[in-house]
Protein 1
Amino acid sequence: MKGIRRLAEHLDISIGTVSRALNGKPDVNEETRRRVLEAAEHLGYVANQSGRALRKGSTGVIGFMMQTGREITGQGDIFFMSVFDGVQTVLARHKLDLVALLCSSEEDPDDYLKRMVARGFADGIILSATRRHDARLEFLARHSIPFITLGRSLTDVGQPWIDLDFEGMAEMSIERLVRGGHSRIGFVWPHGDLNLGYVFIERCRIVLARHGLTLAEDCIFRATPNEAGGYAVARQIKDSGEPPTAIILVNETLVTGLYHGLEEVGLRPGRDIAIIGRQSPQARFLSPSLTGFELSLRDLGIALAESLLSTMPAYGDLYPQVVRRKLWPMSLIDGDSG
Amino acid sequence: MKGIRRLAEHLDISIGTVSRALNGKPDVNEETRRRVLEAAEHLGYVANQSGRALRKGSTGVIGFMMQTGREITGQGDIFFMSVFDGVQTVLARHKLDLVALLCSSEEDPDDYLKRMVARGFADGIILSATRRHDARLEFLARHSIPFITLGRSLTDVGQPWIDLDFEGMAEMSIERLVRGGHSRIGFVWPHGDLNLGYVFIERCRIVLARHGLTLAEDCIFRATPNEAGGYAVARQIKDSGEPPTAIILVNETLVTGLYHGLEEVGLRPGRDIAIIGRQSPQARFLSPSLTGFELSLRDLGIALAESLLSTMPAYGDLYPQVVRRKLWPMSLIDGDSG
DNA sequence: AATAGGATCGTAAACGTTTACGGAAACCGG
DNA sequence: CCGGTTTCCGTAAACGTTTACGATCCTATT
């Protein structure tokens, strides 16, 4: 005898009543409910996930899809750990659990997601590493799975999203650099089809044009979004015919490598070349100190969760005032690098 | 009509046969199997997770339990991502999926695990952040859930584990430092009850004793295992009455902060104080270069997965030669810091 | 031609829940 | 004391699979 049946037998009560008691249904005597809850606690009973999910059609689980192998995502788990923390504080209010759906670097993300959805793994999904054209969005929309993306995409199916305000970042960094006398501004573009690179560079072009400047194509450096990628960029800069006098990094993972690489080729950030990037725990200890954009990852996670919940039938009415799409603000922290 | 029933109807075949065809059972005509597989592919059918799990009693999912909020785990950035990658290459061979079970920093890890297990979430579990005394091990053993720990524990229930070879690290670092003339050697001990700190420091004491030396209690510095923690240690070192001439870091996340902190208090690694730590993508770009221990995280993940599978009834015979418990070797990479 | 045995498939039970439905008791106002 | 309402609980169906069992057809052997 296992599961709810055992509990029911132990209490000499029908399993129906036990289930109702545990699920907080109204039509159960408060005294019985107390006894059931107590016995459940005592026997360590927790409803079996599969049985419950099969009957209810929902799992009580939210999935956060991310990709393993750091060349792809460009975000270390420092980034995600903090976001998770925020997401979880919201989910905990509704007894929802968060699991990370880990897509191997050897599997196609679209296939992976399809598999997880068809399995009925999660009630709602948070997608990261949003690509410029992302078939996952269409798939989820077609199957009407509640989801939200961390990052925009050209593929728009009306889903909510939250994205870092790369436009604002472009505005502020370009304005600052132009004001500082720079006219030849470079940009490091992470490999892959992530949308953020496009968004950022498009706005850069606009802002530059406002000042009668253009973005030199040979000042766009492609790199894998990790330390080694940043390191490699330094040499590209040095070897380019006419090096930029300033560099903007849209990723936070490149900067340590870039600093080191620049030092090797004899360029000092803030003196020989201006650097504007993203703040991070590691960046705090760079020398010269980094000029870069900062944001609250935990709050971002909270917003993600609330926005996702607002699209879910069972929770939607609890978050009526929530903004479904939002550019997440970043603030520029002055440093000595640019 | 949904699920397997739809598929069966579409093919005009019973659902039993469809299921058998999909699961590779022998008693099904090869031609029928081909048709079923084709139709499944075409209709995008994937067996519902809950139904299958309910009937089979297994989910096809391996859970990697980790804790969100970096103050606790002490493992940064690339660490988990790379381990995951290794784990997944093994699991993929058996059509098993890996998900990360994310325990919020606000929830008790023991409770969290119990909940996940009772739910029947995963067929096997990999535990990280193993504590010196860890009730999770007893719980899993009592319920005979296959699992492995990344890290040893004093709580021994016969489970397999893989742990970094902190003893070897202690031997090599102490020997090296003593040979270099150091007699006052400090150690940074990460906060929390993680077992690795104890293991390391115990062996340090033994090796020191071999040379007639002792570990000064006031040279043991506690720190949160992240950049800020390392930064704080620098000041503790400066302010201690008789500062150590060498410091060993057992975490890889502290080192950038420590470097920065030391610079502020006027101590240069390798000249004023020797530093031995752990290599990492960030550490590659420190100056002076770090003397530290390196390991292959991906291979570690592979070993974890193989060892876990060897304890699982369904896969055990496939990995007969696998070592169930292993100290994972690390090699010392020379740098200028110590 | 009769029979044994293999190949292939359909049927139905089972997995552990939740919940619609209905029934029994208790209560209440007139 | 009676009809109606409320409170509480038991019964059984349903969720989507897998699989033991048995039935049917076909082939080969005697």
Protein 2
Amino acid sequence: MIERPPEWLNPPDLKTATGIQRAIADAVETADRIGTVQRVAGADTSMKWRDSRGPIHAAIACDDGTVGQATRIPPFPYVPGYLGFRECPALVAAWETLAVKPDLVLMDGQGRSHPRRCGVACQLGVLLDVAVIGVAKSLLCGVVAGVLGDEVGATAPLVDRGEVVAMAVRLRVRAAPVYVSIGHRVTLETAVAWVLRLSDGRRVPPPVRAAHEAANAVRIAHAAGADGGNVDIL
DNA sequence: GCGACAG
DNA sequence: ATCTTGTCGC
């Protein structure tokens, strides 16, 4: 049984990055009651449109406003089921630029809800040895069992080949759910509790949004030559 | 064989 | 994933 968090956050000022950062910090203040987590971050990557062989820009956005970032050339184009092998090199490099490491990371993508039960969130968690929760916006495998309620906070299990591999969670009314799954060192129940705690009434939780924005910023800066065209090829 | 397919 | 323009609702 999953307990609903007692209170919801006020919507942040979405027009500014500081608004998002405040939302994350506020959420962590009330969320650390369900664990020993001190610092939360979001992780995401960005790339040029229709250029699945081009550089991958990774960002890890922490709740204190610091951002780890890196750019890498992926070893192969996008193939469903192999995303972790494309994104993890850049993500690990971004992690290494952080002076202070987070205790919990919300990764944009699947964790156990993967054909071989090892999505990008699992891979990242193992490589970094840190707790990771997978937050995906669409499905790679599995079907939602039963009916997902219309209300914010509604959940329904995602089943693949007889296993519950994730939980569909509605974070915004009249919006599609996100799929929360185990990444690393966290149970599905705890993962869902964290996502609910960190949510602010929008479809995607603030840490993932912040990481998305940060990764986009890295890509824009790279395109403008602000990084001197620096790309470490692995 | 056919369709589906995170980011 | 990313790009672009327009429309709808609070």
